[in-house]
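Subject: sequence -> structure tokens, single chain

Hey, anyone have a minute? Need the predicted structure for the following. Not urgent.
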Amino acid sequence: MIRDVDTYFIDGCGRCEHFATDSCNARIWSAPLSVLREILRSSGLEEEAKWGQPTYTLDGKNVAMLFSFKDCCGISFFKGVLLQDDHKLLVPAGPNSHVARLLKITSEKDARELEALIHEYLNEAIEIEKSGKKVPKPVRDETIPSVIQERIEIDETFKKAWEALTPGRQRSYIIHIGGAKQEKTQYNRLEKALPKIFAGKGNNEH
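Reply:
Had a minute. Here:
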């Protein structure tokens, strides 16, 4: 996976065989993604690469992330379920999504026309993060650390890799990652575990 954001806009995330080719979704949607990047950077959030994706943080806390799928690109809000969404632009990240919400874009024109509204969503998301407000955990996800569940909801590639793991292998990561008391440590453990997860291996496998 890439380690710097500029590479994403040139060659993609580096997580699949389409990296640095014209089949890469990041290249296909490069024009609207560039506009969205300008909007996100002007919000005052810090830009960094996490999981191969441009991620925008406030004091180290994830607020939003750029994504590029086959049929669209856009912004994923980590605590999107807490946003008011008065303009009804947000959709769940998946059928079982509890937390993340996506704002989907299909053209550079759309991105520019929605700029003012995107700023509204970003400002609200930033205020939510500043307030320290937490997303209530659904009962079904209590055994899964929030950092894993969050990643499942915002990253389709990770979701498929996670669901392909055997229950025992999933449990090895739940114990290892969830065993860390600090959220930052949990994120670091997940980051280090990604190569094994994508390779279909358990935490203790080599």
